[in-house]
Structure formats: C-alpha cells, structure tokens
Amino acid sequence: MSLILDILVRRGSFDLSVDTEFASKGVTAVFGPSGCGKTTLLRSIAGLENSIQGKIHFRGRAFHEGLAGIPPHTRDLAFVFQEPALFPHLSVEGNITFGFERVREKTPLIGVSEAAELTGVTSYLKRSTNQLSGGEKQRVAIAQALASNPALLLMDEPLSGLDASSRSSLLTMLESVFQKVDIPVVYVTHDWKEVLRLADHVVFLQSGRIASRGDIPNILQQVDLPIPEEQSGVTLIEAKVSSVDEEFALSQFSFPGGQLTVPGVDRSTGDTARILIESQDVSIALTASEDSSILNILPATVKSVAITESNKARVTLDIGSTILRAQVTRKSVKKLGLSPGLSVFAQIKSVALFP
Amino acid sequence: MTLSHDDISALFVTAKLACITTVVLLLVGTPLAWWVATTRWRLRFLVEAVVALPLILPPTVLGFYLLIALGPKGPVGWFGNGTLAFSFTGLVVGSVIYSLPFVVQPLQNAFQSIGAAPLENAAILGASPWDRFRSVVMPLSRPAFITASVLGFAHTVGEFGVVLMIGGNIPGETRVLSIAIYDHVDSLEYGAANSVALLLLIGSLLLLIPLYAFTRRARFLT
C-alpha cells in the first residue's frame, strides 16, 4: 500500500529506468547530481511528463499503466516546484485556497489558516504574490500544496532557488511541517544536508538508475555512498536527551557511541533529535585531554584515512557503531600515525541540533 | 450638425453589426487562439499566416472572394431562405473574418505569456482542463480579452471595403456608417458627411482612450 514504480522514460540519449517502491510514511529523499533524472522521476509520478512506459501505482490505484496515465488533476497529490508557480491574479490567501476548494471525495484535514500557520505566511495572507520575496513565495507554494490535502506530497528541490538565509529558515519550517503533517513525501534534492535533516529514507539516483537506497540513519553506516566529496563531510547522529543542565544551559544527549553535550535547554529528557557534525569541527587526539575547553571528547577507532587534497585528509572514525567523519591536515595524519584500527579520541568543537 | 433618419438607421446597423461580430469573434477567436498558442503541430504557422491575412490584404480582395463564396453559386451561399451576400448575416461573416487577427493575436500572445507552470500547478491542485481555463487562463488574460473585444469592435465599425463588396448599400439592413459617409461625399453633401465622420472619429477615440489607459495600468501592475 504505497507508491510503486516500474517505469522507463526516454529523453533523447538519456533514459530514466526505475523499478522501486517508496515508503508509505515519512519523507523519502531522492538524491543525486543534476541531470540524473530526479525531476523527470517526480514529474512522471505527478503525470506532467509524456511518453512514459510502465506502471505507477499509488495505494492500489493505477496512476499510469502501460502507455497511458490518468490526468494530473485526478491523482490526489501535490507538487512543490523548484520555481514557485503561484497564480499572480490571486492574493496569497487566494492561492492557498485554490487547492483547498478543489479537495474531492474526502474531508480535508488541513484548512487554509492551518496551512498558512504551518508555513508561517499568516501575516501576509492579503498581500499580492508580486510583492513577495523568493522565500516567501516558496512558503506560499508549500502552504498551497498542504491546503490541497494531498495523499502524497512531491517536492522538487524547493530550497535550491533561494538565498542562504531563506534556505535555512525554510529548512527549519519544513522540519516542523513534516513532523506535524502525516503525508508521505518524496523530496528531490542535490543537497546532502537537506537529506540528513529532513529524510527518513533516501534513494540515490545516478544517470537515470537507482544506485542505492535505504533508511536513515542505518544507511549512513555504508562508507561508499554516492555522495559528492564536497558534501560528504557531515555526520548525522540520532540521539536522545538524557539530562538537562539548567545552570549552564546545556543538554546532555546519549547515543550508542556515548554522550554529547549540546547548547540549549529547549528539549525535555527523553526527546530524540538529529545532531549534525561537520567534519571540519572534528579534530583527533591520541589521548583524552582533561584540560581542554572542548566538552565533547569521545573514544573512537580509526576506520579509514583518505587523502582528499594536497594538505587535507578525511578520517572516518567509528564511535560505538556510529560513523563520524573528521577533516584533518595530511601533516597531522603523519604526526599522529593515523591508520585503520588505531584507538583515538574525537574532539567535537561544535554541533548543530535539529528536531 | 444633425443626423438624417437614414444616417441614424446606419448608426444602428453599424452598432448591431459590431456587437454581434464582437461576440462571434470572441466565441470563434478564443478557442482558435488557445489552439494556436498551445498546439505542438509543426504546421501551425500556416494557420497563423491565414489568420493574419486580413491585416495586409486589400479589403476589396477579401470582399471579392467572400462575394463569390457567399453568392448564390458559392459553397456557402444559401443560408436559410436567401443568399448570404447582400444580407446582414453575410456582413457578420465578412466582418468576423476581416477582424479575426485583431482578436486572435492579442489572445494568443496572452495565452503564450502565461506559460506552462501556473497551468501545471493548477492541474496538480485538482483543476480540470476547463476549470484551469476558467480560473487561471481567463483572469490572467483579462487585459487581452478587453483589448481583443475593443479592437474587434472598433475595426468592425471602421470597415469599408469588405462591406461595400458583399453588403451593398441596403438602408436599415447593410448600410453602415462608413458607407453613409462615402455616399454623402459622392453626392457632394459635405456637411452630412462631416457629421457622420466626426461621430465615427470621436466614437473611435472614446473606445480607444480607455483601452490604452487600462492596458497601461494592467501592464504596470503585473
């Protein structure tokens, strides 16, 4: 009872050939470089592409069978485009209402005002869409999609056209939307950090084929995932709040590899969260220094060492079945004698915390 | 400066002709413009060229072939109980063909400028093809519909050659204002010609001024 695909789409010399099943719950990220067929895949599911062969079934219903598909307006899904395609003749509210008014054969669970609240557009509902910034437009597009009460939400790189600060605020908004709204999402992106922050499952697409797939965080244990080098430095740890230190405004998180101290006390004991660690914030020591300002020092084992540049190296560490990536200088590799199997201490200078 | 009884009847014929022609033009021109704007047919330029013909063709050429086609021996000559040539219905047919590019071209441009994205979004949000046309295409092309209606109306009011060829000069039936002016001048009644000509000049200006005022504002807003 989910989204089943077995399709072949030919576009000149390129062809997309996908035979897979998407999870019926949570966020499935489709990750890959540009030109790998991510957008074609998403548009095929939505019924916006021509000349598709094969089948697309969603919850037992045939969207596409053989060479023919049902029209997009009957598919009960929503699509957030990379470039928001709002209706310029309608206000923000009119745009959000457009899909809500066309909900058929079911009781809508999300109202217009609720969709506006979830996406943070309530304060400019009466404005014209011409007066909105790129980030605001994309928020309205997401509200519009949510208010159409879809059974499936498709998102095509919704953040890639935005500047860094809107991207970061929309990412936070999407995290809370995905937590509150129970709609399966297929989220296309080429930004690995978005996958780590938002997705429950990931499908790696390369040259029109599925290269790998799995659940997050389990799949992150694989060392040879097809992630571009410049994006692969981030480590994701799923951790649980074990105690809160009100005096110093710190929270203690536990995970299979040990304990992490994180600034902030906005979570209560027992909550889970995703912690992202950038490889340049991880340094390596041979002994656990007691006199360091760094709070997070974890015992680790070197798993692999790879020279990435003339002066830099990527060291993969194993901290109690969690993979942690560190970026150090090539000189340090030599000085410390870093090689697979060596017991070391990982010093984590800063961490970022997500819901 | 007063209008004679004949001239007032010509005014009514002109107004009736322009109104009916405009309605028919919108009914025929809208689907035609939509088809030309969206078709993937390789030879659509042939249709565009034929639609644009009245822009450059002398009205007498168009009128001549319409006269043949609508005449008693023409392919569409017999309509009801008389020939279409020298009838009001014939005038409507001629006017529609003659003013077609003035309606199709602004609409086609407007439809093309909407682009695929808002229509794809509307489809995804559950709008059927007709619903998409009604709730997205029509409101977004409103300035073009106004332009097309005014131009179609004004151009029909101003036509002369085609009417002369296929309509003749039957008072109360096919005698329109532009023909009345010609008749007055022909009979050296310059005063009467001036009355009618001035009426057309001022009427046309009153049609076009708000049109341009409106479309300028619309362009500024979008």
Characterization of this structure:
Helix content of chain A is 20%, strand content 39%. Chain A has 355 residues and is of the alpha+beta class. Chain A folds into two domains: 3-230, P-loop containing nucleotide triphosphate hydrolases (Rossmann fold, 3-Layer(aba) Sandwich); 234-352, RNA polymerase II/Efflux pump adaptor protein, barrel-sandwich hybrid domain (OB fold (Dihydrolipoamide Acetyltransferase, E2P)), CATH 2.40.50. In chain A, a hairpin with a 2-residue loop joins strand 1 (3-11) and strand 2. The longest helix of chain A is centred in the middle third of the chain and has 17 residues, at 164-180. Chain A starts with a strand and ends with a strand. Chain B is mainly α. Chain B has one domain: MetI-like (MetI-like fold, Orthogonal Bundle). In chain B, 78% of the residues lie in helices and 2% in strands. Chain B contains ten helices and two strands. Classes of the chains: A alpha+beta (355), B mainly alpha (222). Chain A binds chain B through residues 46-48, 71-73, 75-79, 81, 83, 85-89, 98-99, 102-104, 130, 144-145, 148, and chain B through 117-118, 120-129, 131, 135-136, 139-140, 142, 221-222.
Keywords:
heterodimer; A: 355 residues; alpha+beta; OB fold (Dihydrolipoamide Acetyltransferase, E2P); 2 domains; five-stranded antiparallel beta sheet; 39% strand; B: 222 residues; mainly alpha; MetI-like fold; two-stranded antiparallel ribbon; 10 helices
Lateral strand order in the biggest sheet of chain A: 7-8-9-3-10-11
Q: Give the termini separation of chain A.
A: 28 Å
Shape of chain A: globular
Q: What is the rounded Rg of chain B?
A: 20 Å
The parts of chain A where pLDDT drops under 50 for at least 5 residues are none
The percentage helix of chain B is over 70%
Shape, principal axes of CA atoms of chain B: globular
* Share of helix of chain A, binned: 10-25%
CATH class of the largest domain in chain A: Alpha Beta
Class from secondary-structure proportions of chain B: mainly alpha
H/E element sequence of chain A? EEEHEEEEHHHEHEHEEEEEEEEEEHEE
Number of helices of chain A: 7
CATH topology of chain B: MetI-like fold
